[in-house]
Amino acid sequence: MNHQQTRSSGDGALLRRYEYEDGWVVAADLGADAENVSVDTVGETAIVVIESDDEPVESEFELPSEADSVSVENGVVTVEGQR
User: Fold this and answer.
1) Which of 10, 33, 37, 79 is most buried, most CB within 10 Å of its CB?
2) How many domains does the chain have?
3) What secondary structure, in 3-state letters, does 11-74 show?
4) How far apart, in whole angstroms, are the C-alpha atoms of residue 44 and residue 49?
5) What segment(s) does the record annotate as region Disordered (predicted)?
6) Domain region containing 39
7) What is the pLDDT of residues 47-70, one digit of tens each?
8) CATH code of the domain covering residue 66
């Protein structure tokens, strides 16, 4: 397993990327409720929108390849894909 940890430049979310022989996982700790977060993937990019009382905050991060699944739980976005 290969592990990388970075901070995104947009909203300061903590990003972690794990690479395995057969796939990868990217996790971002947003600290927001799941009902306030929407995630869309386009090619090798994940687009995250957090709805708030003010205006929505949008952030993007690169993925190793196209995503197979996306989930949001306890303020953490998890994106998974295959190699």
Assistant:
1) 79
2) 1
3) CCCEEEEEECCCEEEEEEECCCCHHHEEEEEECCEEEEEECCCCCCEEEEEECCCCCCEEEEEC
4) 17
5) 61-83
6) 2-82
7) 999 888 888 989 899 999 999 999
8) 2.60.40.790
How is residue 3 written in tokens? 């592990």
Residue whose entry in the numeric block shows the structure tokens 């197979």: 68
pLDDT digits (tens, 9 = 90+) for 7-47: 444 555 688 999 999 999 999 888 877 788 999 999 999 99
Read off the pTM. Answer: 0.79
Q: Strands of 37-42's sheet, edge to edge?
A: 37-42, 45-50, 57-62
